[in-house]
Amino acid sequence: MGLFNLFKGKDDKKDFDGKIFAPLNGKIVPVEEVPDAVFAEKMVGDGIAIEPSGGDLILAPIDGKVEKIFDTNHAFSIVTDSGIELFVHFGIDTVQLEGKGFERLVEEGKTVKRGTPIIKYDYEFLKANAKTVITPVIISNIDEFAGLEKSSGDAVAGETKVLEVKFK
């Protein structure tokens, strides 16, 4: 890598430190323990999952643009200025609930700040009706970066760092 590219990469980051925060309250779980092979085998990317401990809001884990919110409102993606593609998927097989238990609070294309409520959810309904409420938080384009540091323990929505992307 030449000197020019070294500085160019720093500018591209736009001072983003790579830290990604918990979208909801709960216990951080290794992504390999998610009871769904698509996530556990990292087919969609790498990250962590959170076993929610209640609450009713899924917050933006980073500043960025809401690229996609599924019609059923159970999952969304945010893309940062530095190119990180973050995917948050509430529960497993929650798409089969056809949107019941979820309410969209922002629209696709909106730029959000970390901590902005994205989805409102009914924890008790989802706990009773979903296969599991464990929520993967995934970097779908992790191959474009130098690595990923994962946290463990308890997470507080909008406050606890759960992932840190290492830039090349």
From TrEMBL:
Compartments (UniProt record): Cytoplasm
PROSITE patterns per record: PTS_EIIA_TYPE_1, PTS_EIIA_TYPE_1_HIS
Entries under InterPro entries matching the protein: Dup_hybrid_motif, PTS_EIIA_1_perm, PTS_EIIA_component
Entry GO terms, CC: cytoplasm
UniProt key word Kinase: yes
GO biological process: phosphoenolpyruvate-dependent sugar phosphotransferase system
PTS EIIA type-1 domain sequence ranges: 36-141
Signal sequence residues: none
A GO molecular-function annotation: kinase activity
Keywords for the protein's UniProt record, in alphabetical order: Kinase, Phosphotransferase system, Sugar transport, Transferase, Transport
SUPFAM superfamilies for this protein: Duplicated hybrid motif
NCBIfam families reported in the protein's UniProt record: PRK09439.1, PTBA
Full protein name: PTS system, glucose subfamily, IIA subunit
Species per Swiss-Prot/TrEMBL record: Sebaldella termitidis (strain ATCC 33386 / NCTC 11300)
Lineage of origin: Bacteria, Fusobacteriati, Fusobacteriota, Fusobacteriia, Fusobacteriales
